[in-house]
Amino acid sequence: MNKVVAFVQGASRGIGLHFAKDLAKKPNAFVIASCRDPDNAVNLQALSNQVNNVDLLRIDVTNEDDIKHAAVYIKEKYNSKLDLLINIAGMLSPSGRGETSLREVSVQALEETFKVNTFGPLLVAKHFGQFLQNGNGGFGAKSESEKLKHSGVLVNMSAKVGSIGDNSLGGWYSYRLSKAALNMVTKNLSIELGRGRKKVICVSLHPGSVDTDLSRPYLKSIPTERLFSPEYSVSCLMNVIDNLNVHDTGKFFSWDGSELPY
Ligand SMILES: NC(=O)c1ccc[n+]([C@@H]2O[C@H](COP(=O)([O-])OP(=O)(O)OC[C@H]3O[C@@H](n4cnc5c(N)ncnc54)[C@H](OP(=O)(O)O)[C@@H]3O)[C@@H](O)[C@H]2O)c1
After folding, report:
1. Which residue's CA lies nearest to atom 21 of ligand 1?
2. Using CA positions, which residue lies closest to atom 40 of ligand 1?
3. Which residues in 42-69 are b (16+ Cβ under 10 Å) and which e?
4. Nearest Cα to 260, choosing from 199, 143, 179?
5. Residue 5 pairs with which residues in a beta bridge?
């Protein structure tokens, strides 16, 4: 059985933690899980102590040196090869709440949010994208002929509120802008990493409304039938990832596999 190597960036809690747990259950998977403070990521520590296929790394995505050091580690330990990279770390805003009007907009909040939500995933792609070009296409496209056409999958965890076409409510300037720009990162990566014989499939995904620390201030406004557990969201997103093929690259998909407008 071919081993597949998955890298979950932002795995300390919420959706990222559940991706690490889900991927660790795959018998043929090695999971590299990064977070900014592994010593205090108790749930992730517990996972890596329970299983023998989860490797913890320290990355604060606002620090390019952390990303560079992690890339050197993967080069040496995993032979410069990745099959799946999921950029998950994200924040709503430094205050934990989205701006409701222009009065609340500040350069400092915009900068901090962009550093985590947009520049972080871009820098991770800068240092790790080449590793996906060396992968075996262990995720996505079920048929053998489709698998041959791609070497790896890069996922940027976006949000439906980052869709310009879908925006009917306004507000949440820092978050909406940072995720809209992240979608442009996905599109650009799909072009650059889609050149050559073995292509990397690059997509943005929306996980639905998920019960995590990020969404906690807004839980009361989300109808219970539309609020997902992280486990459910991740199982839906894994299904989307497993069914991707090269023609999907550069696109933005929701948790149920439907395409979202940029
Ligand atoms: N929950 C939702 O309803 C929802 C909806 C749409 C999109 N999303 C997206 O899904 C992703 C995960 O969100 P979540 O709901 O799971 O949120 P969460 O539970 O608040 O988790 C956020 C994660 O981001 C990490 N992080 C924040 N700043 C970081 C940095 N500078 N470097 C490295 N890691 C950093 C956190 O690590 P620490 O533990 O170190 O703080 C944590 O692991 C985000 O990109 C979010 O925008 C979520």
Report:
1. 14
2. 36
3. eebbebbeeeebbbbbebbbbeeebbee
4. 179
5. 30
The first and second tokens of residue 195, run together, are: 């050149």
Token representation of residue 19:
């991706």
Domains and CATH numbers, the chain: 4-254 (3.40.50.720)
pLDDT digits (tens, 9 = 90+) for 103-115: 999 999 999 999 9
Judge whether 74 and 80 are in contact, CB under 8 Å: yes
Q: How far is the CA of 92 from the centre of ligand 1 (A)?
A: 8
| Probe target for ligand 1 pocket from 13, 119, 205, with the most ligand atoms within 8 Å of CB | 13
Residues in the chain: 262
The answer to whether residues 162 and 179 touch, using CB atoms and an 8 Å cutoff, is yes
Structure tokens at 126: 């800068």
How many whole angstroms separate alpha carbon 91 and alpha carbon 176?
A: 11
Whether 204 lines ligand 1, by a CB cut-off of 6 Å, is no
> What is the mean predicted confidence (pLDDT) over 147-174?
93
